[in-house]
């Protein structure tokens, strides 16, 4: 069994979230986007990614291909920082994470030392993200910074 589902869960992504974020990564590498159905089939091993796609998935998750395929019992993660697809924190990322945790802007501001107005501007896409602020927020929320930068389609209910 491969570890795609496990790594997706560690990021706190739904199938749709991963499909959207990984598709951005793929497009940046000159590849076509994929759907959540494709990822579901890979997770359940109904289909298998190509050798090239295994490599791209491993790069995306920051692990070795062997670990991703579950051919290696030890987690081999790369220390090299991942370059993020977006440059602004968006409501689809930071605000959603904050709201899902039931936190107010004031609580996040007090806990991180980031001014409340600054967090609000980041969440509304009116201010570019500084790396150190992104790291503070991702550490506070306990999530991968890519989740805060997520620019997927608006979910419908």
UniProtKB/TrEMBL annotation:
Ranges where the HTH cro/C1-type domain occurs: 4-68, 95-148
PROSITE patterns according to UniProt: HTH_CROC1
Domain of life of the native organism: Bacteria
Keyword DNA damage found: no
Keywords, comma-separated and alphabetical: DNA-binding
Record keyword DNA-binding present: yes
Signal peptide location: none
Stated name of the protein: HTH cro/C1-type domain-containing protein
Organism the protein comes from: Lactobacillus nasalidis
